[in-house]
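Please complete every field before forwarding. Incomplete forms are returned to the sender.

SECTION A: IDENTIFIERS
Entry label: holo-427
Bound molecule: pyridoxal-5'-phosphate
Molecule representation: SMILES string

SECTION B: INPUTS
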Amino acid sequence: MSPGSPESPVPYYGPDFGLLLRRDPEAAEVLLDELDRLRDGLQLIASENFASPAVLAALGSTLTNKYAEGYPGRRYYGGCEVVDRAERLAIDRARELFGADHVNVQPYSGAMANLAAYAALLQPGDTVLAMALSHGGHLTHGSKVNFSGRWFNVVAYGVRRDTELIDYDEVRELALRHRPKMIVCGATAYPREIDFAAFRGIADEVGAWLLADVAHTIGLMAGGALPSAVPYADVVTFTTHKALRGPRGGGIMCTAELATKIDRAVFPFVQGGPLMNAVAAKAVAFGEALRPEFAGYAHRVADNARTLADALATEGLRPVSGGTDSHLVLIDLRDVGTSGAVAEQRCAAAGITLNRNAIPYDPEPPTVTSGIRVGTPSVTTQGMGQEEMKEIATMIARVVREPGAAGEIRQRVMELTRIHPVYPSEL
Ligand SMILES: Cc1ncc(COP(=O)(O)O)c(C=O)c1O
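SECTION C: PREDICTED COMPLEX
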């Protein structure tokens, strides 16, 4: 079926919100309220973004109906010839974007991608060297409440107390002492560039696999705003919904040598049938990231983060490590005398959504924390730039110190979001 010309109606069956409104007003109201929340506030959660209408169209498509266990051309169900094309498109585009030998686009999420990577390379009880959660690592890098910490012997490295940068000497010493089978680099709350070549060198020295979990930074890698992990790591896991601006989901890239192991680890070891609507949406997102404009976006995200970090510092809110090379800034609030939890609430009252976050060597428990984490992917997608970042820094600093200013700041937040609307109503 041809997609039709822009003038003629497209013979497509897709999301009909009017129908949902009539059939299930209660659920429809939730969707509308969430849209209002997005439109009326500033979204500074570093791991979020606004997927494009094209990505949303693919997600809301009839591909959600299809069972397609297996891989293109090798499925355990009939009728997969069309969805095979979606998966091939996603794989081909990701390979072109990142120059990877092999890509698996089926992981349901970043955590599933990591579980599959561990399963492909390790046996339970093996030793893994990964970044401490309290210094910015992810749950899947060794938390006791996660499969990684329960099934593997995870040794943690961290950042130096003085520079708050990864201590590569410590990584090497720990690697030599514990002889891990795998080293994990990549983080969830580390603002600085990661030296993948240094990690590769250490992994080679001890004969370990190198897993780069670039869930957070894959979008900046795609746009050339941060160096790629692909030439250095044996396996690269990622998410598609953060700076990359695609649907919620995950993916894995690896060397040709590991392709079969990774594919078998994703299916049938960790997952069942892939979410083919999400796979199609990943293809759309990779296609968008291949366009020249995306490089501009990725660089603006990083520039905005730098400006935000500098402006927060000027306001007396100290960026951990002194700044950022990426899309996120981690702020130490100890000098302000406010916990991360309280700052999160005060900002929320002003329509600014961000999250509390542990800072390295945090004296507070994880539910309280001494820090907040802010990210620029969403506000950059809305078209905000350096001037807005400076104003946002002033607003955060003010409301964190002066909760009574929340109402006034909320008004200004609304004005900013009217100038830079997310999902403009006319679309
Ligand atoms: C470094 C890292 N890895 C993995 C994940 C997990 O991603 P998901 O929430 O899609 O499972 C995250 C999520 O924030 C992350 O930051």
